[in-house]
Amino acid sequence: MNIDVNSVDEALSTTRSVRFRLDLERPVDNDVLLDCIDVAEQAPSGGNQGSRRWVIIRDAEMKAKIAELYMATAGEWMISSRDAIAGSGHPQERVMASAAYLAEHLAEVPAIVIPTIIGEHDGSGLPGLFDSVIQSVWSFCVALRARGLGTAWTTAILRDREGLAEVLSLPAGMTPIAMLPVAWTKGTDFKLAPRLPARQVTYFDSFARTWESGPSDPPTFSDCPGAIVEVSIKAPTRAVWPFISDINFPADHSDEFVGARWAEGSNGPALGAKFVGVNQRADISDWEVPCTIDRFEERRAFGWVTRDIDNPTAQWRFELANIAGASRLRFAMVLGPGPSRFKDRVEADPDNGPEMIASRVAAQIANMQRVVDAVKVAAEASASSK
Questions:
Q1: Which domains does the chain have, with CATH numbers?
Q2: Averaged pLDDT, groups of 10, the chain, 386 residues long
């Protein structure tokens, strides 16, 4: 087997939703679409049934009907949303501008591809239909990218499945899955999208459990075990920020850093500010923990380390991001790599070390979840009162 991994990775990681850069003037030959469908049909299918069917729309009148349906189901809202937030700096400003552009120009694309599958979902909530076609559609998108074409995976038109079925003359028992406007792209230099790295979205053996490295087999403290908990908050970031940018609120809802107070000479939260908390873990005696803020980005991030800032015994981070109609709060923790009483206990008992680490992280996850849940309640209450 001679596969160029770099080329495969490039195609997979730069296949974007393309709207503004679809070339509406350059014809797309049917053969290139069929070649991409041949590639897509190699994707797995439930029971190996071969139930996917593809509809390519070329006829101008048909494309106009599809565009009319799309405008009615979502396009009008996209256009009004674009116009409402244009120039405002809203986090969805570019997304809405791109979506509205497609709605306004859908009838002009060289081809519209509708992947469908034989069958109808039974409403049970169980897999068995979409999971037999979605991977194939993504393969189609990547195959287009590899050839210099692009598309945007859209599903809003499926709000009017009956209207779409009528336009396409779909027989009963067929389910459309997506609508893909296809064209050559204006240029092929698509960049990586901003995404969290794998170690920040991947958990090992149990949800929310992370490792800075490895983990080894068996895992050790030097792998830097940690945890990440998240919550979506129906409030803007400005309403959430006050509850995470001062250690006092999190400390009131956690067994860590109970009764935290700013150290003498520190005037509130800022990069380099210091505070002191009391750890009240049940299995060890209380002790004061000096902390230093090592990350502070207004309305975005607030983080601190315990003990030595250059070799901390633990690291803590709040990260805040805008998502559609809400904010997402992530609370992350890493144990180590610096010396601590817990590290000494783990290293003194290597046979039970993995179990001790797992227990400690599980306790931290529960602790951290209480904190983000409290922030959610407080921030949503604050936002609704204004």
A1: 5-184 (3.40.109.10), 198-384 (3.30.530.20)
A2: 90 95 97 98 83 95 97 94 89 90 97 93 66 92 97 95 95 93 96 92 95 93 95 95 87 77 77 78 59 91 91 94 91 93 90 93 93 96 85
The dihedral region occupied by 187, where left means phi > 0, alpha psi between -120 and 50, and beta the remainder, is left
Torsion (CA) 281, 285, 288, 291 in degrees, nearest 10 = -40
* Among 18, 46, 29, residue whose Cα is nearest residue 185: 18
Residue in 120, 121, 186 with CA at minimum distance from that of residue 150: 186
pLDDT in tens, 268-292: 788 888 888 766 554 444 567 888 9
Q: Are 238 and 299 in contact (CB under 8 A)?
A: yes
Give the closest residue to 90 by CA, choosing from 199, 236, 218, 265.
Answer: 236
Q: In one letter, which amino acid is 261?
A: R
Tens of pLDDT along 112-122? Answer: 999 999 888 77
